Amino acid sequence: MVSIDEQGTSTSPRRTIRLGYVPLVDCAPILIARDRGLFEKQGLNVIIEPQPGWATVREKLVHDELDAAECLGPLAVAIHHGVGTRAKKMSVPLIISANGNGITLSNEIPTEIIETKNGLLNYLDKDWDKDRPFTLASVHPCSSHHSLLLQWLRQQGVANHPRLNVISLPPQVVGRNLASGHIDGFCVGEPWNSVAILSNMGWCAATSTDLSNGHPEKVLATTSSFAEREPEALHALTLSLLQACHFCQNPQNREIVLQTLCNDRHLSTYADAISNSLLGKFQSGPGTRSRKLPDFHIFHGGNINAPTSQASSWLRDGLRTAGLVPKNESFGQDNIFRMDLFNNALSEFDSNKNTIN
């Protein structure tokens, strides 16, 4: 393992790691680990590289242009098995966040449709009068957003409705497509639900907490070849991000987390939207419509960070539900979710967590 001096800083030569992320609220642990020197303390020189969307993250992992990335959980499984891409063996030693998503509909859609039994079904059957399908977007077919959206549509009784269309869009463009009338709603991560809500473009019909509270969201994903080639560097990276997740979860640190996110040039203009979901009180619609949601984003606690078999099953089931993998097809013993690597990091974290600041 990496050697540590009396100040808790690695004395080994620094290993440079290219770490990808998509600028969203739940990238907070990556930014915190960088800005508070957690990577450096573990002897790492981490170059964090923002990506425009999840398809780019996928391709850069497959082609070794990134050593690791904050990744959609189902997407890591898809890459490993070659679902929608060339197969590349992956390893996931850490779950970075849970929850964090919402389903937002256009203000043209009346709120009572989800408060009435068969409301959305009746709306599509009788009141939908546009010359195109009722169109909803998720960020990627291999995502928890897509799984949650399909679950919500099943609950509304419209999952197979002939007037319904579900598409994929990068998270940062869903708002402009909603505003222009190209789509009627979306399921994305923050801050994009809040951007639409605070701009009076839409209202939130459901969040992760309503649909599958505590579901695994973003994971630390790396290629298995990197994990085998650089075990000490991966251990240090996993430990650094686990420490950052612990920091982000503490309510006393949320203002610091907010400021850190707002200092990112890709998120700097969205301070109000970021605080809307991060600080516990979520304005979910026009005017004063709000909810107390302290668990909108979960970064640490219980088994949230552990890549357990239960988390693995939830992510894999999402790929089956989306029709990307046959429901009766087994994934086999693929060893993507590395509890051994997580436990090694957790053991060191537990012995040092009182020194994290």
Specify the number of helices: 15
Shape: globular
Q: Average pLDDT value? A: 92
- Derived from helix and strand composition plus strand pairing, the structural class reads alpha/beta
Low-confidence stretches: 1-7
Number of strand segments: 14
Proportion of residues in helical segments: 25-40%
Proportion in β-strands: 15-25%
Largest sheet: 5 strands, mixed
Strand order of the largest sheet: 2-1-3-11-4
Regarding quaternary structure, how should these chains be classified?
A: single chain
Please give the alpha-carbon distance between the first and last residues.
Answer: 23 Å
- Element-level helix/strand string: EHHEHEHEEEHEHEHEHEHEHHHHEEEHH
Whole-number radius of gyration?
Answer: 20 Å
Structure description:
The structure is a single chain. The chain is an alpha/beta fold. The chain is built from 15 helices and 14 strands.
Task: Give the SSE map.
Elements: E1 15-21, H1 28-35, H2 38-41, E2 44-50, H3 54-62, E3 68-72, H4 73-81, E4 90-95, E5 98-99, E6 101-106, H5 119-127, E7 134-138, H6 144-155, E8 164-168, H7 174-179, E9 185-189, H8 192-198, E10 202-207, H9 208-212, E11 218-223, H10 224-229, H11 231-249, H12 254-263, H13 271-278, E12 281-283, E13 290-292, E14 297-298, H14 309-321, H15 339-352
Parallel strand pairs: 1-2, 1-3, 7-8, 7-9
Antiparallel strand pairs: 3-11, 4-11, 5-14, 6-9, 6-10, 12-13
Helix pairs in contact: 1-11, 1-12, 4-14, 6-14, 8-13, 11-15, 12-13
